Amino acid sequence: MGIAERKIRQKEEFRTSILEAAWLQVLADGWQSLSIRKIADAIEYSIPVIYNHFENKEAILLEFTKEGFQKLADALQSVKDQHTDPSAQLEAIAHAYWDFAFENKEYYQLMFGLGIPACDRVNQVVEMKTMSMVMITTIQDAIAGSKNRDVDYFLKYHTYFSILHGLVSIQMIEKAGKPDAEKKMILQDAISGFINSLVVR
Amino acid sequence: MGIAERKIRQKEEFRTSILEAAWLQVLADGWQSLSIRKIADAIEYSIPVIYNHFENKEAILLEFTKEGFQKLADALQSVKDQHTDPSAQLEAIAHAYWDFAFENKEYYQLMFGLGIPACDRVNQVVEMKTMSMVMITTIQDAIAGSKNRDVDYFLKYHTYFSILHGLVSIQMIEKAGKPDAEKKMILQDAISGFINSLVVR
DNA sequence: TTACTTTTGTTAACACTGTTAATTAATTTT
DNA sequence: AAAATTAATTAACAGTGTTAACAAAAGTAA
User: Fold this and answer.
1) Where do the domains of chain B lie?
2) Which of residues 129-168 of A touch B (CB under 8 A)?
3) What whole-number percentage of chain B has pLDDT above 70?
């Protein structure tokens, strides 16, 4: 009897239609404004049917998070395979990572819990500039006392700042109880690498 | 007539009492669960009074964002002043940045729009491990072909990953229409520095 | 002191959100 | 055809940010 199979197939179709409607919403207005009601409206069913296929809203977002990481993994593996030298591979992976993030902003923001709030907010915060200046002036001093005096200080500031923020936010996501000492080693590693490449003499 | 001054002073006190109540809420349950109603409840006033002092909820969060950047800037300047050599300053600033972030998680998450959603989500995503493996195996290969064969590959993976994520997310926040080429230079700069320090031979 | 004006605060509502219990409609099985 | 199971809906609960309409208090002027 194939009717059981048909039922399973229909259930699967229903599930994907929910995900499709949800994704359209995400693409249209960002994942912050995704709502169960809008999904229900799009698929022309009542609200509770969605809860027959997903435990809650979080489960739907989790689905996209998984999808995103899978796509990213595929993209990285793909460019890695185009090179043989590990250094070239690391460089290619880095560029592919970057490209994925900006070609799939919604995925990326979802995957790493990047909220839009601060994006609108942070740009109108003059206090951030005072922080930037502490970093920038120090980097300028470092460059002035180095061999390559014509290094772009603003570029280096961005690199420095990005490394710091990356280290912190990744560590906040992986909030596993790793010992503090080990965490700080990662910081030490990244930052000393940066400084060394900055003040070559 | 000092009554006008008193009024201004009272208004100022009211304002700070709102912020204090709000901050207690943030510390208690995270800034995601801050609500106007809870603030109103805490200060024992009705809801609309809050809108006499702040345009909306966003304005309250913006206040904390400013506060956070000011505190961070002060902390960085403070440790910078304890050193004279720019390299030492950059290292000290990095550690101070890190310490600030983890001693003031609520501030930091607010400042950079780090949502908790993914934090809970991302840790149960096995797909992330497949992405990690692409990076890790490549780094292992790179180490194997380098001079320092006993480098901690897991440490280097974290560094690599953090640099990439930092670059991307900072760039997403500063969404000013900088040309793509310039953006990619920052990536190139950071990543080539990392690779160079990895495959010294 | 009384009358008027301005400021301040409250009630009640609107338009949303996620989630779920109770109920009806449709389908399958007996 | 009747009973049992499954599917879908209505309606509600408990929240959220925000605001219009109104009442109370305080300051000003006659």
Assistant:
1) 1-54, 61-114, 125-198
2) 130-131, 134-135, 138-139, 141-142, 144-145, 155-156, 158-168
3) 94
Question: For B93-114, what is each residue's pLDDT tens digit?
Answer: 999 999 999 999 999 999 999 9
Chain A residues in contact with B201 by the CB 8 A cut-off are: none
Task: Classify domain A7-111 at the CATH topology level.
Answer: Tetracycline Repressor; domain 2 (1.10.357)
Contact B189 A125 (CB under 8 A): no
CB atoms < 10 A from the CB of A110, how many? 26
B11 C-beta less than 7 Å away from strand C: yes
What would the pLDDT profile of A60-100 be if each residue is shown by its tens digit? Answer: 999 999 999 999 999 999 999 999 999 999 999 999 999 99
Sign for the CA dihedral angle at A80, B168, A135, B81 comes to negative
> Dihedrals φ, ψ of B114, to 5°?
-85, 110
pLDDT value at A1 more than 60: no
What confidence score (pLDDT) does residue A117 get? Answer: 54
What is the CATH code for B1-54? 1.10.10
Helix%, strand%, coil% for chain A, nearest 5: 80, 0, 20
Residues of chain A numbered 53-82 and touching chain B (CB < 8 Å) = 58, 61-62, 65-67, 69-70, 72-73, 76-77, 80
Secondary structure (3-state) at B179: coil
Q: Which residues contact A41 (CB under 8 A, 6 or more apart)?
A: none
Which of A80, A125, A195 comes nearest B69 by C-beta?
A: A125
Q: Three-class SS string for B135-157?
A: HHHHHHHHHHCCCCCCCCHHHHH
The amino acid that residue A94 corresponds to is A
Cβ of B62 within 8 Å of Cβ of A125? The answer is yes
Q: Which of A31, A58, A104, A164 to mutate to test the interface with B (most CBs of B within 10 A)?
A: A164
Residue B145 phi/psi, 5° resolution?
-95, 15
